[in-house]
Amino acid sequence: MRGLAIVAVLALFCAAFAGQPTPAQTPAPDWGRIELVGVELFGVDPAHSYVGFTIGFLGLTKVRGSFKTYTAAILYDEKDPTRSSVTVVFDPASIDTGLEMRDKDLKGPRFFDVEKFPSMIFRSQSIERAGKDGYVVHGTLEMHGVRRDVTIPMTQTVPRMPDTAWGNMRVGVTGVVKLKRTDYGINGNEFWGNKTLSDEVEVEINILGNRFNFDKWSFDSHQKPSVGEAMWQAMAAGGVDAALARYRELKEKSPDDYNFGADQVALVASRLLQHRRLREALDVYRLAAAEFPKEAVLQARIGETNAALGNREAALAAYRKALELAPLNPEAMEMVRRLDTPAKKSS
After folding, report:
1. Which residue among 155, 219, 289, 331 is least packed, with the fewest CB closer than 10 Å?
2. What are the distances in angstroms from CA 71 to CA 50, 186, 337?
3. pLDDT digits (tens, 9 = 90+) for 138-169
């Protein structure tokens, strides 16, 4: 998986798990805090989030649109949200204003020029409190080849909590910021840029962060038995060594009879990580990464698990490998930034 094809935030194989979970009967366990950086990693729930904009048209009305494709990594500190940070990567080619001809023009060289500038990136730099549930997020927005500082007032709308359906851990924020498109070189032509559209653009942000409760995900292997399910059963009987041995045995003796997909193996490790069985999770993620060496998401999971274990250098190495495989992976960008900071301060 590369670039914007990696679905996050957050990068937890959510798209790969086709089986539908059953509703949770009890709240999700308190998992996820990463030892080395003291935060919890969230991806974004794109089906229940929104990033849109409003721009004036002829001084008479407003045109509204949104970006449909984006990935995010949120490093959230529940005890002190000002220690949180976020990276969001947008695909400007996913712009949608409800009119195909207009969208085609916006993607073209007169506006976003998506062929030349295929991504937009927001990275927070600092967060300060602004009253109850209020925060001011300072960061940089890179768009159309221009990077500028931005300040976004935000309100926390969802505290860290499990949802009542699946026990997924959630956190949510909303905010509005006004930008000038010409600050980013998005000028249009003489008619559209100067006579028709306003310079000021209002951007609305509603983000629902998500961390999956993997206990509620099933091994859906598409008609073949799942190697992950076989590993999980072996794990229950004989621990992680038995699970790894079971994988190798089935791969050698029954290579065509099981689904050996990366998602099937990763689900085993993700359940272990969720329950803080960190060394066992690391062993399984390493097996998956050895079998699928080009999957950036597996390197990211190895990085997170090592960070939770307190292994800074191993975590950094894994996240850097994830960035080599997918340079626009927001989780790897965030974690390398966090993990590398102490080393820079001490040098």
Report:
1. 155
2. 12, 23, 17
3. 999 999 999 999 999 999 999 999 999 999 99
Distance CA 76, CA 209 (A): 10
Q: 20-214 and 217-346: same fold?
A: no
CATH code 1.25.40.10 for 217-346: yes
- What is d(CA 115, CA 294) in angstroms, rounded to the nearest whole number? 25
What fold does the segment set 20-214 form as a domain?
A: Lipocalin (2.40.128)
Residue 67, both tokens: 């970006």
- The DSSP secondary-structure symbol of 22 reads P
Average pLDDT over residues 274-290: 97
**73 class by beta-carbon count within 10 Å (0-12 exposed, 13-18 middle, 19+ buried):** buried
**Over 70: is that where the pLDDT of 123 sits?**
yes
Q: Is the pTM of this model over 0.85?
A: yes
DSSP state of 184: G
Q: What is the pLDDT of residues 51-68, one digit of tens each?
A: 999 999 888 889 999 999
Cα separation, 340 vs 347, whole angstroms: 11
pLDDT value, residue 33: 87
Q: Give the other-Cβ count within 10 Å of 82's Cβ.
A: 13
* Predicted pLDDT of residue 196: 84
From CA 196, how far away is CA 56, in angstroms rounded? 8
The contacts of residue 156 (CB under 8 Å, 6+ apart) are: 81, 133, 134, 135, 171, 172, 173
Please count the other Cβ atoms lying within 10 Å of the Cβ belonging to residue 86: 24
More confident residue, 222 or 257: 257
> Where along the chain do its domains lie?
20-214, 217-346
CA geometry: angle 222, 228, 232, nearest 5 deg: 135
DSSP 8-state secondary structure symbol assigned to residue 214: G
242: Cβ–Cβ under 8 A, 6 or more apart, which residues? Answer: 234, 235
